[in-house]
Here is the input.
Amino acid sequence: MGNLLGCIQVDQSTVAIKEKFGKYSDVLQPGCHCVPWFIGRRIAGELSLRVQQLDIRCEAKTKDNVFVNVVASIQYRAIPEKANDAFYMLSNSRSQIQAYVFDVIRGTVPRLNVDDVFEQKSEIAKSVADGLEKAMCHFGYEIVQTLIVDIDPDERVKRAMNEINAAARNRVAANDKAETEKIIQIKKAEGEAESKYLSGVGVARQRQAIVDGLRDSVLGFSGNVHGTSARDVMNMILITQYFDTMKEIGAASKSSAVFIPHGPGAVGDVATQIRNGLLQAAASSE
Here is the structure.
């Protein structure tokens, strides 16, 4: 009934284009309007003012000859003040936007290496947005947002990039491991050096204690037993040490065979050799 009387309804976020005898007349805002058809008025069509999204997949070749698929997401809407331009100037706004996106991406990506394409997503999106804004503004459309949502190279390229990344990480891990082993070896060497130093100090103190004990024993024995000399005491001590050594060699289960003179007269020979060695050392030092 409303159509017969020329009454129409325009929905929210929508405008209607009114014509008079086929010529543009007015833009009707949301609400109820009277369009008497019997005097040449009619509605040519409606135009949505909602934000629309267009996802575009564009293949391009990088500077290092790698083909990548760049997926751009374009959010746009018609400008209410230029609704007549948006309605009449473009027959297919989506195809027009797609053509401009292809042009910008295929003009930008070939100047970058494949790694730079990933790093400069924002710059590529800005270039697309600037180019679209200048072009589509004349046709009554506003570019709300431009996003580069995905960059997809060939599967073999992705596998090679992953291998390069894995090799770099393995190299860093190997360097860290080598550095750790180096520190361990240094600390181990420092510990061994300190241990040997302390062992040498202990041996030196042990020998000093032995010498002091022998001196005290010789002096004490000579003073308490009349008619004995220091030489007699040293011979007795050497005999004691000789038999102690023979006892330890015989008691050890895994000791190697040692052939030394073991007769009673050998003790005098050993004492003579030690005494002569000490005397020769004292003479050479003088």
